[in-house]
From TrEMBL:
EC number: 3.5.3.1
Pathway this chain belongs to: Nitrogen metabolism; urea cycle; L-ornithine and urea from L-arginine: step 1/1
Alphabetized InterPro entries for the sequence: Arginase, Ureohydrolase, Ureohydrolase_dom_sf
An individual GO BP term: urea cycle
Entry superkingdom: Eukaryota
Reactions catalysed according to its record: L-arginine + H2O = urea + L-ornithine
Cofactor(s) the record lists: Mn(2+)
Designated name of the protein: Arginase
Length: 348
């Protein structure tokens, strides 16, 4: 008996060892940035997700994940940025903070990609989508971006009606639009940008008039909720994957407000008629199955909005989405190395 047990545990260790060689490293950074819009609370989301067992949830969805949490991002605003804001971008709320935070994030993402196969950026509001994708582009110039959101977030400083910079990050990323930010020195801080044909939006249902003009003028691919209703999620996924260069790595920027407000009520700009949780999971699973997703953002959870129950529901939905992105399969398929330790008594 002693002998068998020892053998079993040797086998177990052997499997652990071979599993260790296929471990995938995942870096996580919290970005408690709330100045891209006017509601307090989004800055609390990274720590709330951690308290809600983010790490354990991800770890149990794929035992091969080797997770490193880099904590929360810090940044400092310098005089050059304040001057840019005063001279050119005084009509945009918190431009200097936006730039300072994103510059720090661009550096942080590159560090995470040197040390990990994948990274996850937890917001904060969606203004940090700029730094997260831009940092990713500096490490991996051949990148495709899937922006899952109720909103297009592609306003220019000249078109934004709200002045909220969380409605603008995509315009900092696209080759064809970043020239409109000519005083932001983007060629120095983030020289690699995204070609418009490598961007696909999913879930849109609240597009500003000028945003619609920009999307159509540049022929940017977007699957708004009406196309999803007409064609269904499987077709939308197929078209999304077809549109993107199959050699590219993928960045998924997930705004929690893409989900319907019944499953994600605690968010600053909730719009009804959104993705069901199942549709969200389905989309994320399909992207995950390409094995090309290298970076993901999860943004706009605001724990100060709604009841305690609303917050709980929103965080639970977010965890389901993240679980599916990082390994969980609804079919039950998984790696068995830590389970196959002799529970069936003897080898068949
Ligand atoms: N990331 C978001 N939730 N963005 C909402 C943007 C709303 C609106 N289009 C604006 O520019 O102000
Ligand atoms: Mn957004
Ligand atoms: Mn949104």
């Amino acid at each position: 008996m002693w002998c068998t047990r020892q053998l079993a545990s040797a086998r177990f260790l052997g499997r652990c060892f071979s599993a260790a060689s296929e471990q995938t490293r995942l870096g996580i950074i919290g970005v408690p940035f709330a100045k891209g819009q006017s509601k307090q609370g989004v800055e609390l989301a990274p720590d709330l997700l951690r308290q809600s067992n983010l790490r354990q949830v991800l770890q149990s969805s794929d035992e091969r994940l080797l997770i490193t949490d880099y904590g929360n991002l810090h940044y400092a605003v310098d005089e050059t940025l304040l001057q840019q804001q005063r001279q050119h971008y005084y009509h945009i709320r918190n431009y200097a903070d936006f730039m300072a935070c994103n510059l720090a994030l661009i550096g942080q993402v590159q560090v995470m990609l040197q040390q990990n196969a994948q990274f996850l950026t937890i917001g904060g509001d969606h203004a940090i989508g700029f730094g997260s994708v831009a940092g990713h582009l500096q490490h991996t110039p051949n990148l495709s971006l899937v922006w899952i959101d109720a909103h297009a977030d592609i306003n220019l400083h000249s078109t934004s009606q709200s002045g909220n910079i969380h409605g603008m990050p995509v315009s900092f990323l696209l080759q064809q639009l970043r020239a409109t930010w000519q005083h932001a020195a983007l060629d120095q801080v983030a020289p690699n940008c995204l070609p418009k044909d490598q961007l696909v939006y999913i879930g849109l249902r609240d597009i500003d008039p000028y945003e619609a003009f920009i999307l159509n003028k540049f022929g940017i691919r977007y699957y708004a909720m009406d196309s999803i209703d007409r064609m269904g999620v499987p077709k939308i996924i197929e078209m999304t994957l077809d549109a993107m260069d199959p050699h590219n790595k993928i960045h998924v920027s997930f705004d929690i407000d893409a989900l319907d407000s019944n499953v994600a009520p605690s968010t600053g700009t909730a719009v009804r008629g959104g993705l069901t949780l199942r549709e969200g999971i389905s989309i994320v699973e399909a992207l995950r199955d390409t094995k090309r997703v290298q970076g993901m953002d999860l943004v706009e959870i605001n724990p100060k909005l709604g009841t305690d129950r609303d917050v709980r529901t929103t965080v639970d939905s977010a965890l389901e989405i993240l679980k599916s992105m990082f390994g969980y399969r609804r079919s039950g398929a998984r790696h068995y190395s830590n389970l196959d330790t002799g529970i069936l008594g003897h080898e068949q």
